[in-house]
Design a protein that fits this description.
Three copies of one chain form a homotrimer.
Chain A lengths: L5 E6 L7 H12 L9 E6 L7 H11 L7 E6 L10 E5 L3 E6 L18 E5 L5 E4 L15 H14 L10 E2 L1 E5 L10 E9 L5 E6 H4 L3 E5 L2 E5 L12 E4 L4 E5 L5 H5 L6 E6 L5
Parallel strand pairs in A: 1-2, 1-3, 3-5
Antiparallel strand pairs in A: 4-5, 4-7, 6-9, 7-8, 10-11, 10-16, 11-15, 12-13, 12-16, 14-15
Chain lengths: 280, 280, 280
């Protein structure tokens, strides 16, 4: 794969501190010609709740596939910074991933590598490569104890986005930490899941993949049963609808209102899915 | 007009979800050479309150004129997504506008097209062109029911910004939906208006154009009368002043404080304007 | 020094209004070839509390050194806009600074120019240059009374970033307003300081430079004594630790929690530092 020059940033830094700017600065300092536009930096989001790996997995799963092949995705949700947690750069068939080796990069990894539950150490799938960047020769002159995003990940990401190979950023590794998929299994048309995320509009995204929910289903949530799929947000009038979200999950929504509020549910709350005959 | 390569984004997505990143990604995927810097994406604001067309009109009216001619302005405030609302790309004398055909793009349209009140279907002014992009051939491979910003508007905007003509994005249309101006009429030196917006500083921007308020005026608001125009924020000392805002409206402001709080007013509250003799 | 084409923006505008977009637009309009990527605009942060010069000094001190030499740093925290406060562009050995001549640009100035307390008028250090840009020939066609960031600073910054010399932006000045350093003095291994900043994670950054705190020290804060330096956030287990922050100050932190909350302290609260023998 050829780097396309794009570096995306996903962090739990918020926008009130100088940390995001320091990441941008470190990327630009490391890029061969900062002003030429050869490096394009895109902020995915910096609103991951502090240290929340699950939120980071959801956000990156939604965002990363939208970018061109050859992008470098940096994810800095790193509560273990300074400890002995690993730090890796991984090359997949579509992109490079740079971040802590804690499983938090898993949304960019092939399904075949992901364990059924929790996290596991998994060998890289065929055609992939990875490097341990904890002691990368590209590190900042002085590496802080608390900001490896700036001092290690940014220079590595800039180098990869500029076309340098993984061998130049650190020693090869063949096994990385991988987290289970966020999606809940649907077996014989039924599943037990949870609310993965409530978005700004109050849409509640469940952990069921729409592709597994079938042509007709119902969702039990907050003591209510919602039949789906609806064709549009507006289809339910003033009632909550269930429909495929723009990221492929079953989503509960309310036209011009908050489904989460109407249902009295929040992130993590349990949800049940049941297929139904389409006439049901 | 020639595209200048700039695409601006104004949405009600907030910055906590992956939606803004997905827009950026879709634009970059659709651009011919993502890394070359040929496309420049600028976030105007993603803080439009969900579905709030009036706020979007105010924000875009302030922001869009600041950009170079030939920019492509994308506005995704689209509560009717998935319904039969129209979706258009419009070429004006200064820019292209891409978004729902609900009137929400009106800040970029010539004054001659805008109705006196509410919204109306208006023929395009001379020299303009528009296309219906609901079934654009540039659409994403799979079009979601809930995110036409990503699946339809972004590829259209990227194509236009890259120099492709409107004829390539969808069939021509000659009539679009247009909303009334936000500005309140001032007749014989008097007008009844409202607070259009309260900004982060507590400045309360009224719906009166400063150019219509005359050389000396007074504003009745929250039971108080404020004479204007003041020369600067500081001119009033610890009192609220009225002066031309940076976007051309009469603005109520308080040096080192919040005028909105001092006056006890918020967005939508009524305001009266009266011209006065400059000695008054 | 040669401009590298980067312009950074630090303001108290927030992200809900159109002001940041207007800055971007004004920069792009002033740049010779907006679409070519010759100008790169980076948002440092727009979350400076309204008019808060001290917060701006801290943020810029953390962020600016991260950028490549030859960057142009624009800082718009300008409660005196429209008054007779000065407005300057300053060339240092590393960068250009553009903003109000109130001392708020001081983080980019050499230590030798900074007074011990408050603000003072200081002659430029050797090799530096500055221009008064209040009446810059590059001003917008119509200069507002309330938004000099857009109407004066942006066109000046774009010109400098595009390679134009300071002589083209306004008349030379040789004395500018400079604020005292944020760092508190440490004398004979002891100092009285304050909490400079509490970040999103609840880390409380003190006003003591880590380089002055010595190999072993203790911090008195909120009625507690914290020994330092710790090697990592995690080193303290469930207790607050003191360690060098990523910007070089002594920072109080709590693994997976908020040190500020645990200590019951906030920005501005007093802190004492005392060196200790490393065995202590």
């Amino acid at each position: 794969m050829r780097a396309c020059g794009i570096v995306t940033l996903t962090t739990d830094f918020g926008l009130d501190d100088a940390y995001v700017a320091q990441l941008h600065g470190a990327l630009l300092r490391a890029a061969p010609s900062p002003a030429q536009g050869a490096l394009r930096i895109v902020d995915v989001s910096h609103a991951v709740p502090p240290g929340d790996a699950t939120a980071a997995l959801f956000l990156s799963e939604c965002a990363w596939p939208a970018f061109p092949a050859g992008s470098v995705h940096v994810l800095v949700v790193d509560p273990g910074v300074g400890s002995d947690r690993g730090l890796v750069a991984i090359e997949t068939a579509e992109a490079w991933l740079v971040g802590p080796d804690t499983g938090v990069l898993s949304s960019g990894l092939p399904a075949s590598m992901r364990p059924a539950a929790a996290t596991a150490r998994s060998p890289l799938a065929g055609g992939m490569a990875a490097a341990d960047i904890r002691e990368t020769p590209l590190a900042a002159a002085e590496v802080s104890r608390t900001f490896h995003g700036r001092d290690l990940m940014a220079p590595v990401a800039a180098a990869i986005a500029s076309g340098r190979g993984l061998e130049s950023v650190g020693p090869a590794v063949s096994v990385v930490t991988v987290a289970a998929p966020l999606a809940s299994p649907v077996i014989d048309g039924a599943g037990e899941g949870r609310i993965l995320h409530v978005d700004r509009f109050g849409n509640a995204i469940t952990s069921f993949r729409a592709s597994q929910a079938g042509a007709a289903f119902e969702v039990e949530v907050g003591g209510r049963t919602v039949a789906g799929p609806a064709a549009t947000y507006a289809a339910g009038g003033t009632a909550v609808v269930a429909l495929p979200s723009s990221s492929g999950y079953v989503e509960l929504a309310l036209a011009n209102g908050s489904a989460a509020e109407a249902l009295g549910v929040g992130r993590g709350d349990p949800v049940r899915l049941r297929r139904r005959s389409s006439g049901g």
